[in-house]
Amino acid sequence: MTAPHRLDDRGQTLPLYIWLTGILLFAALAFFVFAQAASARNGAQSAADAAALAAAQDSRTELMTRLQDAIGHDDHWLDWLNGSQFEGTGATAAAERLANDNDATVPGGAVPTTVNGYPGYRVAIETRYTVGKSIIPGTETQHARAVATAVIQPRCAFARNADPKKPLQLNCGGQLVNIDPSHFQSGDLPDASVLFSVHLAE
Would you list the domain boundaries of the chain? Predict the structure, then answer.
């Protein structure tokens, strides 16, 4: 009488085992989907960060060029040091190049913005690749998106009563920069990173 009872217990355990195995398999597949999505999001955010920084760095380069042209010729050249005079004509192209390197696009271009009083760019990107096929319908056509903002922060201070026509000294984050407008040459300016820092907005 006991042997048939043990066989009956085994028969009841088998469906439970299959059911639990199915749940574990589904959980593993779901975890894989979330991992795919997380990887796509991380890639998109890295692309957005790089594109925003590229836009701001391009504008910083343009700003430096215009500053060099202004010193000694424009009595308002000190205004360029606050970072608000740049036009950023190549910002979108720079952002697109970096996005392309990361297999992404910049549908709306580099959008000028201001963060805490500092000029910068907001860049929204979309990856060319998708999340990929999974158990969740539609992921094979879903592209990752991300947004980043980079700012150009002036680093130089000078006396409020400074005469733009006379020699003066700038304190750029602890580094002293001497400029004589009447004898200025482009090599008198330090690297752009000394005058303006470029970083992602928090």
Answer: 2-200
